[in-house]
Write a structure and sequence with these properties.
This protein is α/β, with parallel strands linked by helices. It contains six helices and six strands; from the N terminus they run αααβββαβαββα. A hairpin with a 3-residue loop joins strand 2 and strand 3.
Length: about 290
Amino acid sequence: MHTWKKIRLFLLVVLLAALVACDPAEPEPTSTPEPVVEPTVVVEETAVPEPTEAPAEPTEVPTEPAPEPTPTEEPVGFTWPEPLPEKEQLSRDPVTDEETAVFNFFATDLPMERDDIALAFAYKGLTEEPVLHPEPVSEPLKVGTRQDVFINNSDTNVTTAVPMQLLYVSDHAYFWFEQTDTLSTPDEETLAFTAEQYDNIYEQVRSFFGPEDSPGIDGDPRVHIMNASPLTICDVDESTAHQCGLLGYVSSSDMQPAAVRENSNAREMFVMNGSRFGSALYLEVL
């Protein structure tokens, strides 16, 4: 009996479960779509331009009568002034004996030429005759040779010893350049071209004026060309170096023995503005 009740209860539970499983779920409510609002297009009315007024008729400007031409005056005659009276003629009297004697005195009794060696004996204590014509050199100086050379500043008139280096040797000249940051070193092509041009100039000058005292006081037939910085030969600095107007100079004291002139370089030489090296003006000055 109890078993039958259990079976009935079990079947009842199964039936209820089947009914619950077969019962459909309530559908969820769908949202109502909102109406789409179309944008309103505002059309602006185009303003109609007002009609323009017709241009006014041009007003006539009264014209003034043309001025009458200015009457041309008759040219006035020009009267030349009276000529100046003639000056008194110079004396045509014969030259007197006294006048002739004065003329002959100044024409023949010329002042003595400067003799630096004699002055050195008289005033500088020179005791031995200096050698003016040493034996000629057998070989030229070698490129790269360094020497200190006395250079004069043309503005301050101060002479200083300047380090120089020999950069090129031509047939007739040595080309030296000051060793300083204020003077650039030319390239080999410029050196060779300038040296060749100088040799041509040298030969032409000798053909017109004759040879110089060669081999000279240093026994070397070549001329020394010292290319110095503008800061050495002029009273300028790096910012005003272009204002140095000196192109070059020759000093006769350099042709004297050092025993006679203490600042003499004892050689035939030119001092040139090295910043102009290679230019046409440089060669014209040489």
